[in-house]
Amino acid sequence: MPEILIAPNSFKECMDSAGLTHLFHEALQDELLNRYKTKDFRFIDKPVSDGGDGFLQVCIENFNLKKVELKVSAPFQDDSISTCYGYSRENKSVYIESADVLGMKLIPEEKRHPLKLSSRGLGEMLLHLKNEKISGEMDIERVIIGIGGTGTSDFGIGMCSALGLKLLDGSGKELNAVPENFLLTEEIIWVNPGLNFNIEIVLDVDAPLLGEKGAARIFAPQKGATPHEVERLEKGLENIVRILGKKKNTGDLLGAGGGLAGGLHFFLDGKYKFARDFLKEDLGLNKNKLNPDLIITGEGSFDSQSMMQKGAFLVIDEFMPSGALQFICAGIIKQIPQELKKENIKFIEISKFFHTPEESMRNIEKGVRLASEEILKFYFRNKT
Q1: pLDDT, position 384
Q2: Cβ(253)–Cβ(209) below 8 Å
Q3: How many CB atoms lie within 10 A of CB 289?
Q4: Which end of the chain is more exposed for a tag (fewer CB within 10 A), N or C?
């Protein structure tokens, strides 16, 4: 029986990968039954995440997690937000999507100033988990944090401030632990809080914390920083790293999530886990375990950044040696890299079915149905 693997990434600001997987499954099944009069296909539903938007929902679907709600500080600090994490007592694991605590989606446009934003809410969540384990309410050995979609750029300093970190100026006065004060910092007080679980950091890019391809210069402008603020942020981060480097090696600091990945690694001994390994080892998207005849993946926008450990590209790359027919469905396709211009790899731009990209986002269900018709038309035409 032919197998269809459905493994999309989320379409940012439109629909998460679990919802898209369901839509594609339903549309393909209906089309097979009504137009091609067949039920002889087996579906493998594997919504994917590279650590960014939709990470928690993917983990809930794959690992049968219990959703736990919690209130923590908002990134803009003068308010609290309701957020959640996923818990598996059986696997002694907690899954956190950083975008659900620090995401751009949580920050009103007028407050998108990375120099003033803090990751403190994530630190409060980690402290809560530590206390839950101490009390016996939860049995936790691993906390897996998906990095991506964050609105903060503070290297996890705010997170650590909830766990005891202090920034001091030259006179010994304590500063608010946000990036606008990084350049004023002369001393950092930090004692490892001894979290009673291991931290794994799932990330899609290996960009460094500092430099031309780092957290400030590449990602801060996407979060609302002006050119002047980018320079101030870069210099502030350089100062923080300089101070920390007096006591501990600061090599291997990554800039994903506005430096959150590097902060989790440096301050809390978190271990990096790249999206490719998460997809293969944790989600089971592995060519040695699956042998589908037709593969459908995609993401909201496919461009040059999609080749940087992003979910859709990782699916394509994993199954490329099999020669199976693969379809990349994206809201917008900005660029098709040369290495993906192959006979068995096809692209479908969903926005082409509508007048504008905004209209396609509002009508994603119809877009998926039209894409599914095109996929099966091509599949059966090439089978005969």
Answers
A1: 60
A2: yes
A3: 8
A4: C
382, with CB counted inside 10 A (0-12, 13-18, 19+), is exposed
pTM comes to: 0.91
Give one DSSP letter per residue of 168-230, joined into a string: E-TTS-EE-SSGGGGGG--EEE------SSEEEEEES---BSSSTTSIIIIIGGGGT--HHHH
Q: What is the pLDDT of residues 294-349, one digit of tens each?
A: 999 999 998 777 776 688 999 999 999 999 999 999 999 988 888 888 999 999 99
Burial call 372-381: b when 16+ CB within 10 Å, e when fewer: beebbeebee
Residue 230 has pLDDT above 70, yes or no: yes
Q: Where in the chain is CATH 3.90.1510.10? A: 55-276
CATH 3.40.50.10350 in the chain is located at 3-48+288-383
Q: Which residues pair with 144 in a beta bridge?
A: 95, 200
Residue 283 has pLDDT above 70, yes or no: yes
Q: What percent of the chain has pLDDT over 90?
A: 87
Q: What is the CATH number of domain 3-48+288-383?
A: 3.40.50.10350
Written as one letter, the residue type at 241 is V
The tokens describing 290, both together, are 């699956």
Q: How far apart are CA 117 and CA 77, in angstroms?
A: 7
- Mean pLDDT on 377-383: 90
pLDDT at 212 over 70: yes
d(CA 130, CA 279): 27
